[in-house]
Amino acid sequence: MKRQKLFGTDGVRGVANIEPVTAETALKLGRAAAHVILELHGASHPPGTRPKIVVGKDTRLSGYMLESALVAGITSLGVDVLIIGPLPTPGVAYITRSLRADAGIVLSASHNPYEDNGIKLFRRDGYKLDDAVEQRIEDLLFSGGIDSIRPTADRIGKAFRIDDALGRYVEHAKSSFPKHRTLEGFHIALDAANGAAYKSSPCILRELGAQVSLFHAAPNGTNINADCGSTHPERIASIVRETGAHIGISHDGDADRVLLCDETGSVVDGDEILAIAALHLLREGRLAQNTLVATVMSNFGLDECLEQAGGTVLRTAVGDRYVIEEMLRRDLPLGGEQSG
What is the pTM of this model? Predict the structure, then answer.
């Protein structure tokens, strides 16, 4: 593979089975990632134990190919793999923390069509890898510096399938909802984009008491994001009008974004969701430093809206990783992107 920039703002992404999103590169990336994890965390594990990496994915056909290659690469360096199957990207991040793993990897191309796929890595705390660590992995992959490292016998890693990952994430998501409230009496229309949230989101909403009308929740490997989901907001608007739901929720393929729709079929985008949440926190005095974090893509109407209420908008480069980094650096509770 010719040397090129591997990691973009959201991991490695491209057409599946075309470089850099091939089984061959995924195997090498798994080996390089495992080696870096051993460098970072290997010494913290007692003798006889190994570091662990969580691997999750969305519902793309190519996920099987890439998952198998990653698992082979990681275990070949003597690191164990915890396979959790299809789960929203935020769920993979949570499970990485919950299982005390040393890193997490999610296979997804987010809102892109099924032909694409991607590889995104998380730190052990569930946040995306630092740029320096990604660069170290990239350098190892292209340099061949670890090609000769070949653990044998019982030093080869193992792969374990985690059957309760979905249940863990559902309970975690429910715990973020106010304990004195329920969704009883609410009729919610949900577009799962035939993606990673096709099981988790309806389960969470129903267990909180909502009546859920579920659409696009039959993934077959090739229909993820196909004329549905948050990149087609007109679909949830039409569904809400047809079903008489009180609210519509639309995910993208890996469910790391959401768009809403009110009872009239009017779409509520990411900026509007941020404004609603920020104004609520401002009224309650819970928006730290009276500051909301958004990206340079957000409408300036968001700034005007918050300024009128005594708040301010802090902008970052495009990408949720930059929003999160700024939130963590300044200890701010709310941030997001226009895209949802």
Answer: 0.93
- Residue 283 belongs to a domain with what CATH number? 3.40.120.10
| 3-state SS, residue 52 | strand
Pick the closest to residue 257 from 301, 325, 204, 197 (CA basis). Answer: 197
Residue 158 lies in a domain: yes
Cβ contact 316:339 at 8 Å: no
Pair 191, 240: CB distance under 8 Å: no
Q: Mean pLDDT, to the nearest integer, of 103-119?
A: 97
Query: Could you report the per-residue pLDDT of 209-218, keeping only the tens digit for each?
Result: 999 999 999 9
User: In this structure, are 117 and 127 located in the same domain?
Assistant: yes
- Distances in whole angstroms, Cα of residue 233 to Cα of each of 32, 173, 201, 249: 39, 24, 18, 10
HSE-up (13 A, CA, CB side) for residue 85? 13
Start-to-end Cα distance in the chain: 35
Tell me if residue 76 is catalytic. Answer: no
In the set 44, 62, 76, 110, the catalytic residue is 110
